């Protein structure tokens, strides 16, 4: 993409309304624009990041055997009356009357709708296990939306729903998502720690929040520091092998890890002193087994091998891609701007032409641009007539992992400069060597 | 994808509520499920088709130089009060009050919001031309939603907005979209004919509807039959060359073509008799130049080269991917089911194992499945224990372009059967030859 034809509205001033660093940086980098309180438009750079996050989430959901669907945003209130949640949900639910005065709502989540789909089509244990997910906009009418897309009213959510015949197979489904989440966060460049969460009236220990550590996190968390070095499962993990999944889950739940709400000071003190980690954390995922909570009142039953009808056992599994964009920035930035992990950088490479209009510099940049394009590498080519200092600042602010800096002086010796955003290292080397370094 | 692990809820009976063939087939093929009147969930097969349509639309928007963003579904009423449309829009607009009693709405379109974004960031003629698009769910509260996703209340729309300094450059932007639309519909397997549409108070002739011919179309259309054989622009068309674009637009608007509303019987009669085409049509796209209709009241101005501030000239360009899924079926089906064009088929290949459990047949199918996967070809492997007749019916109903039929009898001679859905031709040939035929 040529920056001269792109839409990248960089803000040079720090926006006053933004309280946390990710919000400030997303506004300054031209990623988002607030349209109403807690409601944002994603500008081109932000949209690219959001898409890349969604693609990682999607690939790992698919790998685990979950199947993608797409449910609508607007739901009928009647569906929520069946589960009893219409009255319970409170003011966070955006309630709507359509032109025929029917009660509708903008879905804050989809347990009811998914249960209705299961009830309509799934009749036999032979149709199970099943895990359906979608990535769709949700609305929760927070009293005080804040922190940009970290706590917005309209937000993007990947929500998956597992459907199984009984508790034992539901646990396998739960473990599949547990492992898929470990892989997802690892690929997003995050070290997420699963922490036991409240299961409410269901009981049991099949509810985990995945928390990343960041100094601006919303809550205090406590865990064994070995979590930071723990291996995540590889892409060869067999999601059809319940024993293999259980082994991974056991390892990842073997050490102490808890949020404030579930914190047990005595258990924490039992960790050897040098390995106690107490830090701020941001919730980036939540998985939850809820049994027959919806299938019973909504009568979503299947016939078992014995022919007897029974309500299905379900769980739900959420990740918020819009919130993740902010959470990743909280975990990865410096005073100059964002530092994107390569997997979700809006462009992998920034190509900085320091003297637009100089024939040799232009020609060198065009050649590099064409070469990267031919290798399907996303590159943002700064072909504007801004000063070099401004180009450096923009490239650092928007956090592109690699910067190729091309100017007439270096080119006279056949050299360009290659900068890594992550550690700021710069080296001078021939064009071919710079490209080889990037394409690795 | 193995059908045994997929979620494909085929209906054997013809749904009573569906009046048109695309609606019936989408329900029967397990593509969609109605959740409320005019509101649908996209089941896995439907979601795949919708994604493929969106990808074609996106690729052609990007090729033309348009830039993707993503605006929210919920908008502030105040924005619409600025343009004066809040009161004009009528009951089709889904009006909402949030918990603070603020007037909000579910966007039926985004001219106001886009104009607000332009107003916020675009200050100079040097930032133009600009074309921003998004693919987002819209809501129009139709009195009587019907025909499935062809006329639904919640629907997916690609809407692009061009922003230019003056009328002349706005026409170039219009022509870019005109050409991009020709290419988009061609790639979707549709023959779409641009027809002059009403421009309302703006006047001029820069508004076209793109219409495909289908016997179940909603309106009567009249055109010269040469449109059916007209070449669409190739992928090498230069969107930076205004003259080249104008030549294409001139050719595609040189012959008579009109919808009922704009029909001129005398002009139609002037076409030589054998070349007059009168048929039913479905609108699949609409492009529209509206000048300063929003930029003036909303004060979206830029400084021209002379330093004088002036309101920008804008146009909007819509395609409905959810409606297109139905329109394509209307245009491409037979008595057995859907006939997908290859570009948007949910799977390019159906692999039918006629004797699951037979070691040789299973092994042959697994080998074919692995081979297609290694070539990144989407394949739905019917590994269920259904009867062959049922498998044939399903493959035809869901309309996969290629079917590889594998049974023990053929395999004894090293042969499989290859069927093309489009024309029903079947041939018996060795596995390698069948794969070569599919992969071209």
From TrEMBL, chains A, B:
Tell me where it mainly resides.
cytoplasm
Q: Does the keyword Protein biosynthesis apply?
A: yes
Task: Give the lineage.
Answer: Bacteria, Pseudomonadati, Pseudomonadota, Alphaproteobacteria, Hyphomicrobiales
Please verify whether the record's keywords include Glycosyltransferase. Answer: no
Please name the source species: Ancylobacter novellus (strain ATCC 8093 / DSM 506 / JCM 20403 / CCM 1077 / IAM 12100 / NBRC 12443 / NCIMB 10456) (Starkeya novella)
Q: Which family does the similarity line name?
A: Belongs to the class-II aminoacyl-tRNA synthetase family. ProS type 2 subfamily.
The record's listing under SUPFAM superfamilies reads: Class II aaRS ABD-related, Class II aaRS and biotin synthetases
Q: Main role?
A: Catalyzes the attachment of proline to tRNA(Pro) in a two-step reaction: proline is first activated by ATP to form Pro-AMP and then transferred to the acceptor end of tRNA(Pro).
Q: What is this protein called?
A: Proline--tRNA ligase
């Amino acid at each position: 993409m040529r920056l001269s034809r792109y839409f990248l509205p960089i803000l040079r001033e720090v926006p006053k309304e933004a309280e946390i660093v990710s919000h400030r940086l997303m506004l300054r980098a031209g990623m988002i624009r607030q349209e109403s309180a807690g409601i944002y438009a994603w500008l081109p750079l932000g949209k690219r990041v959001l898409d890349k996050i969604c693609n990682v989430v999607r690939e790992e959901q698919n790998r685990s055997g979950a199947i993608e669907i797409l449910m609508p945003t607007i739901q009928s209130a009647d569906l929520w009356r069946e589960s009893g949640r219409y009255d319970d949900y409170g003011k966070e639910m955006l309630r709507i009357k359509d032109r025929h005065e029917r009660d509708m709502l903008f879905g804050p989540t989809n347990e009811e709708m998914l249960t209705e789909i299961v009830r309509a089509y799934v009749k036999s244990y032979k149709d199970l296990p099943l895990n359906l997910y979608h990535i769709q906009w949700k609305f929760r009418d927070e009293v005080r939306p804040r922190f940009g897309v970290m706590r917005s009213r309209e937000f993007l959510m990947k929500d998956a729903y597992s459907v199984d015949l009984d508790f034992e197979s539901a646990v396998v489904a739960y473990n599949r998502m547990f492992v898929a989440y470990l892989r997802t966060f690892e690929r997003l460049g995050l070290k997420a720690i699963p922490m036991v969460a409240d299961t409410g009236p269901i009981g049991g220990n099949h509810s985990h929040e995945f928390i990343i550590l960041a100094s601006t996190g919303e809550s205090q968390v406590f865990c064994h520091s070995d979590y930071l070095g723990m291996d995540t499962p590889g892409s060869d993990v067999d999601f059809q092998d319940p024993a293999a999944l259980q082994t991974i889950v056991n390892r990842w739940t073997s050490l102490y890890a808890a949020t404030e709400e579930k914190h047990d000071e005595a258990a924490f003190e039992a960790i050897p002193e040098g390995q106690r980690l107490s830090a701020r954390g941001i919730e980036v995922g939540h998985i939850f087994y809820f049994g027959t909570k919806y299938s019973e009142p909504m009568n979503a039953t299947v016939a078992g091998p014995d022919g007897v009808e029974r309500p299905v056992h379900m769980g739900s599994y959420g990740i918020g891609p819009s919130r993740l964009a902010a959470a990743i920035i909280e975990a990865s930035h410096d005073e100059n701007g964002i530092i994107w992990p390569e997997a979700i950088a809006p462009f992998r490479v920034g190509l900085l032409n320091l003297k637009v209009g100089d024939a040799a510099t232009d020609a060198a940049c065009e050649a590099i641009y064409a070469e990267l394009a031919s290798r399907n590498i996303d590159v943002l080519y700064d072909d504007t007539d801004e000063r070099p200092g401004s180009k450096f600042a923009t490239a650092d602010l928007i956090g592109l992992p690699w910067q190729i800096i091309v100017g007439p002086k270096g080119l006279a010796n056949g050299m360009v400069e290659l900068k890594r955003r992550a550690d700021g290292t710069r080296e001078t080397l021939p064009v071919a060597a710079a490209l080889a370094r990037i394409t690795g």
